[in-house]
Structure formats: structure tokens, C-alpha cells
């Protein structure tokens, strides 16, 4: 059965493509958009589910005008399925780096986590996943930023609004000052 019969294409257009095009058309700088999107994706793959929204909010507050909040949040939204697929690689990376024991991924361990009966081994595995993410995050951020800068330069050039001339901008400021 074709994928468009499930409505995935229209959902993707409504939830990802249209908001992205609105962001690009509003005239933000390509480097700012690239950094914000890379930051949102990097924070969006944080291995503890349900915390990425708050991490992105704190990053937006921390970076202020240097990042574009809608881009961070859209990237965080897009990163959710990727987050779930990267928990195990972050766990294994953390185990390798720390030299910790290999945590067996069984349904019993998942049941303990969900019911709140997490044992020491489960908590240690969460710490290993966090360590794996902490080590990988700067590389993820750097690679995504490097890949996104030319993409956003192209998108802003092709679909962005025409910036006003500096003289008109100065005139507006002078009129307000009077």
C-alpha cells in the first residue's frame, strides 16, 4: 500500500514542511537557522524521553537572540523518532567509555523502568546512556551545523523574503526617535 494512503505525506507537509517554510520566509539568518536546527536536533536526541522539550526551552533562554526558538522546537519535534532509535547506541557508547558492564536489554528491565522498580543496573545504564550522549552531542551539533549552513543559505536565498534596504531601516528608526 502506498505511503500517501495513510496520510503520512500530508501530515509531514502540515507538521514539518509548512512550519519550516514559514520560518525561512520570515527572514532569519541562515547561520542562525542552521545553529538553531542543529541545537534542536542535538537536544532532541537526549536519551531520557520526555525531557527534551525542557532542555530546548532552557537552551532558548540561555542563548536568547543567538538562536531561533521556532527552529529549535521544530527540530526537537522532528527528532523524537530519532531519539528513540539512538537510546541503545548512546547506552553502548557510555558502556564502552566508562568500561562498565554490558546491560542486557530484556523486557524485564523495561518493565522495571516503567513500573518504577528500577534496580541499580537499570539506573547505571541510564547514566551510561547520558554519558554516551554527552560525548556524542558536540560532534552531532558540529556535523549538523556544518551540513545545515549551506542548506539554509539555499532555502533563505530561494524562499526567503527580500530584506529591506539599510537606508529604509535607518529612516524607520529616525522616525520613531522623533
UniProtKB/TrEMBL annotation:
<feature type="transmembrane region" description="Helical">
    <location>
        <begin position="38"/>
        <end position="64"/>
    </location>
</feature>
<feature type="transmembrane region" description="Helical">
    <location>
        <begin position="71"/>
        <end position="91"/>
    </location>
</feature>
<keyword id="KW-0812">Transmembrane</keyword>
<protein>
    <submittedName>
        <fullName>Uncharacterized protein LOC105051687</fullName>
    </submittedName>
</protein>
<dbReference type="InterPro" id="IPR018639">
    <property type="entry name" value="DUF2062"/>
</dbReference>
<dbReference type="Pfam" id="PF09835">
    <property type="entry name" value="DUF2062"/>
</dbReference>
<keyword id="KW-1133">Transmembrane helix</keyword>
<feature type="domain" description="DUF2062">
    <location>
        <begin position="21"/>
        <end position="157"/>
    </location>
</feature>
<keyword id="KW-0472">Membrane</keyword>
<feature type="transmembrane region" description="Helical">
    <location>
        <begin position="130"/>
        <end position="156"/>
    </location>
</feature>
Amino acid at each position: 500500500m502506498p505511503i500517501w494512503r495513510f496520510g503520512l505525506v500530508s501530515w509531514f507537509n502540515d507538521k514539518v514542511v509548512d512550519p519550516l517554510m514559514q520560518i525561512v520566509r520570515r527572514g532569519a539568518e541562515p547561520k542562525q537557522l542552521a545553529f538553531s536546527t542543529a541545537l534542536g536536533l542535538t537536544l532532541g536526541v537526549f536519551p531520557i524521553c520526555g525531557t527534551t522539550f525542557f532542555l530546548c526551552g532552557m537552551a532558548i533562554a540561555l542563548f536568547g537572540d543567538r538562536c531561533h526558538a521556532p527552529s529549535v522546537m521544530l527540530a526537537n519535534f522532528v527528532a523524537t523518532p530519532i531519539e528513540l532509535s539512538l537510546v541503545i547506541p548512546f547506552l553502548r557508547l557510555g558502556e564502552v567509555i566508562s568500561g562498565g558492564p554490558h546491560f542486557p536489554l530484556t523486557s524485564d528491565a523495561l518493565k522495571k523502568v516503567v513500573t518504577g522498580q528500577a534496580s541499580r543496573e537499570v539506573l547505571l545504564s541510564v547514566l551510561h546512556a547520558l554519558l554516551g550522549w554527552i560525548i556524542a552531542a558536540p560532534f552531532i551539533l558540529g556535523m549538523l551545523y556544518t551540513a545545515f549552513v549551506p542548506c539554509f543559505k539555499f532555502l533563505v536565498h530561494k524562499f526567503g523574503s527580500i530584506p529591506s534596504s539599510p537606508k529604509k531601516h535607518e529612516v524607520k528608526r529616525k522616525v520613531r526617535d522623533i
